[in-house]
Amino acid sequence: MAHFTKATSVKDWLNQRLAIEKVEKVMASEYWIPKNINFLWAMGMVLAITFALLLVSGIFLLMYYQPHVDHAFYSVNFTIMRDVGYGWLWRHVHGVAASVVFLVIYIHMFTGIYYGSYKKGREMIWISGMLLFVTFSAEAFSGYMLPWGQMSYWAGMVITNIFSLGGLHMDGLVEWIRGDYVPAQAFLTRFFMLHVLLLPLAIMGLIGLHFATLRIPHVNNQDGEEIDFEKESKKYLAGDKAGSKVMRFANDFMSKDMMVVGIYLIFFFYLVFFQYEFALDPVNFDPADGLKTPAHIYPEWYFLWSYEILRPFSVNIGLMAFGFAQVIFMLLPFLDRSPNAIPASRRGAFGVWFWLLLIDMIVLTAMGKLPPAGIFSTIGLVAALAFIVLWIALPFITKNEKKA
Amino acid sequence: MKNKEPLIFIIVVAFTLLTYWLVEPFAHSQMHKHVESEKFAYADLPAVTKTGVAATGKELVTGAAACTGCHAITKDGLPAAMDAVTAAGTYGVNPPDLSNAGALYDAKFLSDLIKNPAHALKVEHKFDAAKGKMHPMTPFAGAGGEIDQEVADIVAYLQSIAVKPEEVTPKMAFENACGRCHAVGYEKWTQIGEKPAFKFQKESLAFDIKVLEYQESLTKYMGKLPPDLSMYIRSRGEHFISTFIENPQAHLEGTAMPRVGVTAHTAEKVIEYLEDAGDTKRAERTATGKNVMIFIVIFAIFALLWKKQVWRDLH
Ligand code: HEM
After folding, report:
1. In a domain, B309, yes or no
2. Which of A68, B52, B148, B149 suits A51 as a labelling partner, its CA being 20 to 30 A distant?
3. pLDDT of residue A168
């Protein structure tokens, strides 16, 4: 057993038992961050804060929400929105955060792609990030079912139906997921469980994993510079703060994180109070009605690009393209054959590839919402094909990339 | 090296706004038919040329025109001939109490309604006298004098007993103009009136049965049960509802919902009623919103100052 002495202070008492000073060093003050990074590296913290907002507001909503097909809509739109003091605030915070979190995730992902932060030892950061993306998507989808409005019901119907389409023909699987032939009580209860228990647990575990994967490779920097963290941190600790290429996570980078978080929260709360409709779709304020199909059924904006990859093709090809879109981002570290972990602007063809992919996904997003008719369905088809071609081309264009 | 952050920030904001514009304003402009407001002018109806005399109007309403055979005018001590459920059984819907009709409805609309209900209400696709399909409200064919004068007298009477137009309340506007067809559960409103808090379950159930009976007649009359409007202010929005009540046919061609013929002011009050039902906390939201914004801006300023202080030694 370890040797314990009489504590001289509370801190000392804890230190002997939990090594809090050591932990503090490892996690914060001697967790070294390169100095040449910009505000895009604060997006991870912005995501963590947004997740905290989701968790807290979700806990408050959970106190009044009723997962029953006859009461869910009422418990959300009457009890929470009217009866409970500031219930509306929690709902707006939760709804807006659920939408904005995806905006930030996309910014975070494209930052990673732009700076090549998924290779040279950072593959696991990327993979754990993609696992977070997948679980977040499932979390958002399951949450969208809960108010049991028209869009909950019909989006639930259309998306679960995907498995029964074309050559897949897995009607049994669809029924198994729904627990019924159509979305009904069993469906609502299980998505409720997923949304408030299993998926949040998985997300918290994955955030832990994501942070752990950052430890050894450290975060990348905006110049693609290889930094000797050992040497630079010694310089810092010896007092040459200005000359060192690295800084402490806390308080050095954290103060910048907080500055970005402050600016982000101004934007976030503006949306919560004054511009919330994009996140709380009007159609979902009509109660679920299995006999009345809404004129337009579309998923939330952050799923539109992958929905549009499914739509313009014949059923079987559409399903294959959709499956492709779901896994392809995960494989990015292995499809990029270039050894250069530097900004896309210095990588020639890859730089073009990056901007094309970004623009293509925005086009897909827009077409995914518009009715699939006339010019829009043609644009959608072209954009979906372009998406597939871009990814197939990636290994070839990166293989020929000159070593920087 | 030069600071790239402003440029990066501009790029991030530009792509975000572009995506927002595409999936929200642009997509919605493509998905929904845009209907301009007609400013409740009822330009398709003939102008009123005669000045009515209220006293003559009163005689007509209870006499030759027989309005009170179907409608109550409780304000003038004229009760309904039947209770709401029986009336719905007879006419399909309970004819509204006319006490404040003079203030709620547009005068041009009222004049046309009295002479030709199906025309004013824009339900001629459902009711065509030539095909033997009569509107349940019988048109007034005149009492022997000049019909336009008589109509003007009736309208003058209705206006003389009504509250002043500016005294129309949200509740009054909704219950009179929409309440006979639409329930608003969140305000306890049913088609036969507000559901009281009953002491015994038996009484409560008896009330519910009456509502169901009423709804049965109404469904038969309309072809479908008009929806509960509790959350419609959030699901449809103010512009849609306002232009919809102005002319339902402009949005849903062939719909059974009549053009109700309210004035612009009454329409505003109807909207206010629906906001109270489905967007109850809007005032609190704006007020809280302002305070939170002030708080967050102060937080951001402190965060900025802290960062500046910490980073002074790093350069
Ligand atoms: C809510 C979910 C997420 C949270 C809370 C989160 C959090 C973080 C944090 C705190 C960092 C370090 C600071 C930074 O570089 O921003 C980071 C880095 C990173 N994250 Fe995430 N992240 C999430 C989702 C994702 C997703 C979906 C991806 C993409 C697949 C991803 C990929 C990365 C990569 C590649 C890095 C390393 C950046 C570098 O080395 O420069 N993360 N994340």
Report:
1. no
2. A68
3. 79
Q: How far is CA B92 from CA A65, A378, B224, in A?
A: 38, 49, 12
Residue A248 carries which side chain, given as an amino acid letter? Answer: R
Q: Which residue of B has its CA nearest to A263?
A: B300
**B110 within 8 A of B158, measured Cβ to Cβ:** yes
Q: Would the CB of A47 count as within 6 Å of ligand 1?
A: yes
Query: What is the position in ligand 1's atom list of the atom closest to the CA of A130?
Result: 30
> Do the chains contact at A369 and B27, CB–CB below 8 Å?
yes
Closest residue to atom 3 of ligand 1, CA basis: A47
CB contacts, 8 Å: A259 with chain B: 300, 303-304, 306-307
Name the residue at shortest CA distance from atom 40 of ligand 1.
A219
Domain tally, chain B: 1
pLDDT in tens, A215-261: 999 999 999 999 999 999 999 999 999 999 999 999 999 999 999 99
Question: And the tokens for A276?
Answer: 């919330």
Residue B286 domain-assigned?
no
Whole-number Å distance, alpha carbon A130 to ligand 1 midpoint, is 9
A69-A72-A76 Cα angle (round to 5): 165
Q: Is the pTM of this model over 0.80?
A: yes
Please identify which residue in the block is written with the tokens 């469904």: B219
Per-residue confidence (pLDDT) for residue B193, from 0 to 100: 96
pLDDT at A30: 94
> Is residue A276 within a helix (H) or strand (E), and if so which, with residue range?
none
Please provide residue B23's backbone torsions phi and psi, each rounded to the nearest 5 degrees: -85, -20
Residue B162: name the closest of B105, B120, B101 by CA. B101
A100: Cβ below 6 Å to ligand 1? Answer: no
pLDDT tens per residue across span A158-201? 999 988 888 878 889 999 999 999 999 999 999 999 999 999 99
Position B32 in a domain: no
Residue B1 pLDDT greater than 70, yes or no: no
Q: Is the CB of A397 under 6 A from ligand 1?
A: no
What is the reported pLDDT for A143? 97
> What H or E segment, with its residue span, contains residue A102?
helix A87-115
Task: Give yes or no for a contact between A99 and A274, defined as CB atoms under 8 angstroms apart.
Answer: no
Interface confidence (ipTM) of the complex: 0.95
- Burial of residue B268 (CB within 10 Å: 0-12, 13-18, 19+) is middle
Mean pLDDT over each residue of chain B, to the nearest integer: 95
Q: Are A329 and A358 in contact (CB under 8 A)?
A: no
User: What residues contact residue B299 under an 8 Å CB cut-off, 6+ apart?
Assistant: A262, A265
Cα–Cα distance for residue pair A120/B194, rounded to 1 Å: 70
Would you say residue B67 has pLDDT above 90?
yes
- Give me the residue label for tokens 């309309």: B222
Stretches in chain A below the pLDDT threshold 50: none
Structure tokens at B196: 């009281």
| Domain annotation covers residue B35 | no
What span, in angstroms and rounded, lies between the C-alpha atoms of A145 and B207?
A: 34
Residue with tokens 């393209």: A321
Helix pair B107-115, B147-161: axis angle to 10 deg:
130
Q: What is the pLDDT of residues B206-236, one digit of tens each?
A: 999 999 999 999 999 999 999 999 999 999 9
Separation of B9 CA from ligand 1 center, angstroms?
18
Name the residue with tokens 């897909």.
A364
Which residue, chain included where needed, has tokens 């069993």? A186
The range of the structural domain enclosing residue B234 comes to 52-280
Using CA coordinates, name the residue in chain B closest to A244.
B314
